[in-house]
Amino acid sequence: MNREEASTRALLARHARDRFHDECGVFGVHGHSEASNITYLGLYALQHRGQESAGIVSTDGHAHYVHRGMGLVADVFNEKILSRLPGRHAVGHVRYSTSGESQIRNAQPFYATTDGGSVAIAHNGNLVNARSIRRELEGRGAIFSTTADSEVIVQLLARSREKTLVERLIDALSRVKGAFSLVMLTDDSMVAARDPNGFRPLSLGRLDGAWVAASETCALDLIGASFERDLEPGEVAVVRRGRVRTLRPFKRSVRETFCVFEYIYFARPDSNLNRNNVYGFRKELGRLLAREHPVNADLVVPVLASGDPAALGYAEESGIPYEQAIIRNHFVRRTFIEPAQSIRHFGVKVKHNAVRGLLQGKRVVLVDDSIVRGTTLIKIVSMLRQTGAREVHLRISAPPTIGPCHYGIDTPTRAELIAHEHTVDEIRELMGADSLGYLSLEGLRRTTGPLKQGFCDACFSDEYPVPFETNEASPQLSLFRDIESDED
Ligand code: AMP
């Protein structure tokens, strides 16, 4: 390889890492005297969807009040800050992004004052044509202040020739492709919208006469709101003066492709997705896993917490006793949350510890929901061996992860996915396990069959329902580094 090729490759690799999508949770409340306090609680329940930044924008109809910060919801907000976010309407956002984009300027909600009024937008999902729209707008003089794909929605809205802010939002959303579940706040209304494929969840609830929108129903539970319904794919719901008006402005022909990984890993098990309980679904996957990959063993052990319902299902179906033989330190953040590789390894080490007395001389079935890079399980298997386990049989309640997500789940590049690079037997060998069984794609599809929903399982099948732009097309991002929030 000559120098020019090498530098092009390095550039492409950097762009590949510079993905500007993120995992998020959104929340909104319209018509409640404690709007920002309730939004704070809603975000608290959605914390698992994003731990890097949090933000709330509220309005009293005269002005919008903003607070955003890096860190967990509890770190970013306190009573004093919430008291300075007045008004009966609010939207909030929690976010986790990939390395290099961990900056306060990318924290949402985004807000802007347009000639049609002020808006704040909290967006979950990844827009697959954001790069080309951004390039086009920049070519016409637009100045972007973030590196997040969601900003193109705000920019398109600000430039739209439509009259009302709702029409402008619809105009903007008609131009973007990919995944959006979003909540927008104007002076007097809240708008909740889902893309026509319905990649990400978004539910509506009611609380003391107010309307609430939340990424997951667990947030409605926490604030004591009643579940009203899920927003349908392609639906735009406009809440104003206590009423909801439903619009369906997008093409109807699109097939629903809800993210199956929300069911497998991402959503909280106490949430219902499309009225289906996530916990029950995961347990069912565990049962099927036991039928697909039986083994003679003494114990079924979950990798807490993600593998727990599937481990219970496996244990019930196989009749092998379930034991929580790996204890998790609850105060360590999720493995993926630390942007730097070195910290992630550290996280794995401090996160789990084995219960020695339970494992000595035992044949163990170790159940987890997925293997991405493989770093977590390699360490856990070796820990089990060191603790005296005689055999370790790995069981994964999802098919091998072979493709990155382009619709809003943070996954590393294809080359970093262990199942893209290796066969199942090679992975078993690398993990140091006695056997390894993944749930089959057919089995997963059979389990989702009765859920009355269409699914995207691109990370397992490599069948992407919406074409995405390649990284080569990406503009150079992050020209300015925010030294206040940069950690390195
Ligand atoms: P790895 O060590 O890279 O194989 O990570 C796999 C573990 O991370 C699995 O046990 C999952 O519970 C969890 N996981 C999978 N996908 C994600 C994601 N997108 N964000 C955070 N954690 C994830």
Main sheet specs: 7 strands, antiparallel
Tell me the total number of β-strands. Answer: 23
The top-level CATH class of the largest domain is Alpha Beta
CATH fold naming of the largest domain: Glutamine Phosphoribosylpyrophosphate, subunit 1, domain 1
Strand order of the largest sheet: 3-2-4-1-10-9-11
From the N-terminal CA to the C-terminal CA, the straight-line distance is 31 Å
In helices, the fraction of residues equals 25-40%
* CATH architecture type of the largest domain: 4-Layer Sandwich
CATH superfamily of the largest domain: Aminohydrolase, N-terminal nucleophile (Ntn) domain
**Number of alpha- plus pi-helical segments:** 18
The fraction of residues assigned to DSSP E strands is 15-25%
Compute the CA-based radius of gyration.
23 Å
Approximate shape: globular
Mean pLDDT: 89
The parts where pLDDT drops under 50 for at least 5 residues are: 1-20, 472-476
Write up what this structure looks like.
Helices cover 32% and strands 24% of the residues. The radius of gyration is 23 Å and the shape is globular. By secondary structure, the chain is of the alpha+beta class. The protein folds into two domains: 236 residues, Aminohydrolase, N-terminal nucleophile (Ntn) domain (Glutamine Phosphoribosylpyrophosphate, subunit 1, domain 1, 4-Layer Sandwich); 180 residues, 3-Layer(aba) Sandwich (Rossmann fold). The strands form six sheets. The protein has a seven-stranded antiparallel beta sheet. The two termini are 31 Å apart. The relative contact order is 0.12. The N terminus is likely disordered. It has 18 helices and 23 strands. The structure holds adenosine monophosphate (AMP). Adenosine monophosphate binds next to helix 14.
